[in-house]
Amino acid sequence: MFVPMRFTLGKEERLKSKKLIGRLYEEGKVIKVFPLRMVYIQTEHTSKFPAQVGVSVPKRNFKRAVDRNRIKRLLRETYRKEKHTIYEAVDKPYVFMISYLARDEWKYADIEHKMKKLLTQFITEITQDEK
């Protein structure tokens, strides 16, 4: 059903659909591991990958676009490296959005550690929901 996993984050793995994003924030469940927050929903999507992901950084916390873009790059990179944990654990398609909540920029290693925690917490939560 799903394509084999590669360590890339291509166009089809990114969440772009405005309808899905709207539905995600209306119906989605939330997991927080400061400074990250994940809103997720189990739904069909157009991609042949098991998950579509989007990242966001609020303009309220980072006024300059340069800073927001850098943090988004860091979030995408840490997700790209850790997505194999999700791909191995899920059998249904999921859509989620990862938001950055802190008011200052964290180091890459710290964000990477928190991303691992967030994704493992997501996996434990969806396996509990299936039981």
TrEMBL record:
<dbReference type="InterPro" id="IPR020539">
    <property type="entry name" value="RNase_P_CS"/>
</dbReference>
<comment type="similarity">
    <text>Belongs to the RnpA family.</text>
</comment>
<keyword id="KW-0255">Endonuclease</keyword>
<dbReference type="GO" id="GO:0042781">
    <property type="term" value="F:3'-tRNA processing endoribonuclease activity"/>
</dbReference>
<comment type="function">
    <text>RNaseP catalyzes the removal of the 5'-leader sequence from pre-tRNA to produce the mature 5'-terminus. It can also cleave other RNA substrates such as 4.5S RNA. The protein component plays an auxiliary but essential role in vivo by binding to the 5'-leader sequence and broadening the substrate specificity of the ribozyme.</text>
</comment>
<keyword id="KW-0540">Nuclease</keyword>
<dbReference type="GO" id="GO:0030677">
    <property type="term" value="C:ribonuclease P complex"/>
</dbReference>
<dbReference type="GO" id="GO:0004526">
    <property type="term" value="F:ribonuclease P activity"/>
</dbReference>
<dbReference type="Pfam" id="PF00825">
    <property type="entry name" value="Ribonuclease_P"/>
</dbReference>
<keyword id="KW-0378">Hydrolase</keyword>
<dbReference type="InterPro" id="IPR020568">
    <property type="entry name" value="Ribosomal_Su5_D2-typ_SF"/>
</dbReference>
<keyword id="KW-0694">RNA-binding</keyword>
<comment type="subunit">
    <text>Consists of a catalytic RNA component (M1 or rnpB) and a protein subunit.</text>
</comment>
<dbReference type="GO" id="GO:0001682">
    <property type="term" value="P:tRNA 5'-leader removal"/>
</dbReference>
<dbReference type="InterPro" id="IPR014721">
    <property type="entry name" value="Ribsml_uS5_D2-typ_fold_subgr"/>
</dbReference>
<dbReference type="GO" id="GO:0000049">
    <property type="term" value="F:tRNA binding"/>
</dbReference>
<protein>
    <recommendedName>
        <fullName>Ribonuclease P protein component</fullName>
        <ecNumber>3.1.26.5</ecNumber>
    </recommendedName>
</protein>
<dbReference type="InterPro" id="IPR000100">
    <property type="entry name" value="RNase_P"/>
</dbReference>
<keyword id="KW-0819">tRNA processing</keyword>
